[in-house]
């Protein structure tokens, strides 16, 4: 076994231990434990295995997820305090929100650099290519969630490019029932709904992915059945929610929207 292989094996083992211990946190500006281990593997410029890919994805998803949740809570509280005229509280909240935004920006830029410099250049399969371009779309979308004005537009443009590149490869390399292709459609539709404020485009994309998968459902392998059908249900849930935002004559045929306060759903990991 070469020194590179030994190093890779050690990093992956430590990442697994960190995952079990739920050690994803960002400490003193550095992403440590599980994420740090998988960063080292990615920088070896070898194509990652499915397991390695998922470890990297899950680690970053957990690190970013906690901060996205914090940002949403802070933004909601800030709006309430502003409506009450509590200027001192608003000032404190803005300061805290800025800290969370700085952390979000750092995490997103970190994984985006790894994707561009190491993961995409090392990917040899269509599945891996879709996975990484989808991640690129996801993390630019996370930036677009809190950036403003020109920075928001730039992040949204880059997110769109990532999703479009992933979709182009997925349409020729992956079956319509593949969990990664379905997860891409789910997150891409969330992008149109939340970032581009286009419920019609979001519904069209989600419905198309759902219908294409339904048509090929009998070809699903037992291995991916659970993941694929779960994402299909998430697509359907979002369609139910989103169609309530469509004008009566502008909706997709066959949909009955209803009022719901549920947040549009996306998968828990970048590969689902």
TrEMBL record:
Ranges of residues in domain 14-3-3: 8-257
SUPFAM superfamilies in alphabetical order: 14-3-3 protein
Start and end residues of each stretch annotated as Disordered: 245-272
Pfam families xref list: 14-3-3 (PF00244)
Domain of life: Eukaryota
Record-annotated site: Interaction with phosphoserine on interacting protein: 68, 141
Alphabetical list of InterPro entries matching this protein: 14-3-3, 14-3-3_CS, 14-3-3_dom_sf, 14-3-3_domain
UniProt similarity note: Belongs to the 14-3-3 family.
Protein name (Swiss-Prot/TrEMBL): 14-3-3 domain-containing protein
Species for this entry: Linum tenue
């Amino acid at each position: 076994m070469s020194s590179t292989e030994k190093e890779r094996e050690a990093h992956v083992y430590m990442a697994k231990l960190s995952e079990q211990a739920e050690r994803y946190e960002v400490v003193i500006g550095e992403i440590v434990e599980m994420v740090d281990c998988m960063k080292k593997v990615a920088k070896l410029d070898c194509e990652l295995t499915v397991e390695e890919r998922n470890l990297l994805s899950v680690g970053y998803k957990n690190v970013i997820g906690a901060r996205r949740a914090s940002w949403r809570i802070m933004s909601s509280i800030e709006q309430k305090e502003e409506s009450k005229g509590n200027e001192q509280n608003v000032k404190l909240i803005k300061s805290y929100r800025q800290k969370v935004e700085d952390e979000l920006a750092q995490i997103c830029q970190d994984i985006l650099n790894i994707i561009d410099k190491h993961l995409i250049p090392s990917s040899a399969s269509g599945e891996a290519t879709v996975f990484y371009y989808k991640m690129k779309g996801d993390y630019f979308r996370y930036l677009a969630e809190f950036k403003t004005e020109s920075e928001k537009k730039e992040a949204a443009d880059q997110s769109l490019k990532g999703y479009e590149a992933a979709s182009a490869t997925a349409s020729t390399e992956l079956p319509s029932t593949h969990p990664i292709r379905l997860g891409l459609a789910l997150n891409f539709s969330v992008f149109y709904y939340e970032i581009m404020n286009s419920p019609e485009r979001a519904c069209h994309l989600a419905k198309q992915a759902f219908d294409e998968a339904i048509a090929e459902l009998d070809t699903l392998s037992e291995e991916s059945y659970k993941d694929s059908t779960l994402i299909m249900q998430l697509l359907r849930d979002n369609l139910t929610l989103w169609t309530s935002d469509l004008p009566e004559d502008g909706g997709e045929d066959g949909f009955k929207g209803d009022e719901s306060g549920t947040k549009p759903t996306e998968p828990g990991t970048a590969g689902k």
